[in-house]
Amino acid sequence: MHLLVVDWDFFFPTPTAGGPLDAHADLYAWPTAETHTYVEVIWLRRVRAFLAAGVPLPFCQGFDGFWDRFTLAPHAKVFYADSNAWAGQLFPSNLGGTGPWESVHLYDAHHDCGYRPNHRTFEDWRTKGVISAENWLLAHYWNGSKVFVRFPPWRESLTRPSERPLIPLGMTIDDGRAPDVVFDAVFLCRSGAWVPPWCDRDFSAFLAACPAAAVEVPQNRWNHPRPDVRRMAELDQRAKIAGTGR
Length: 246
What we know:
By secondary structure, this protein is α/β, with parallel strands linked by helices. The protein has helices spanning 36-53, 122-128, 136-142, 200-209, 229-244, and strands at 2-7, 71-81, 103-107, 146-151, 170-173, 182-189, 213-216.
């Protein structure tokens, strides 16, 4: 059995994840954490920064027709949640199968195979055994699955940023070709700490376009779509202009 995992930030180009650098790259120098503050609250401050700089808001791109390249089993389900950490707890047993996935294929702006200095080595992580959004793919490697990572086509190279996963795995920039396997399950995460709320409606459309039965991870907790911070910031700007009489 084979698992396909897609992170919504695969479609959200950022300079910090290897996208093209420009004069406004500093606007993307975001700290991230999977907390209420970074998933919901912080985005109002960030949208204000774009508006103040006169820079158009970035949106997700390249997701139309994405699912068409893959072959899914007739019984396939697409599990979805805000965090990719839940993908580390999805196994063939969730579908009535046994053993590990034969292969796990991740489409993501990040490799999710553990990052230094949080863990020095795979053995260091295995000793602690805590699954999170940054290391969940290690759980499948530990279980005996072949693991592969494909970075988005907007990424310019594999040298910026340099990748140092804690395990050996296949890493490449997506060239539009699909793995020659039939996927029994899909996991899709919204990555609310990495992708802004003004992309939430596109996420909903992307999920609906997946040719598999949608199943929300039971433990998932989120607010979707999130508050429209773009509209909130625009109203703030209008109020300030009205207050100055301009």
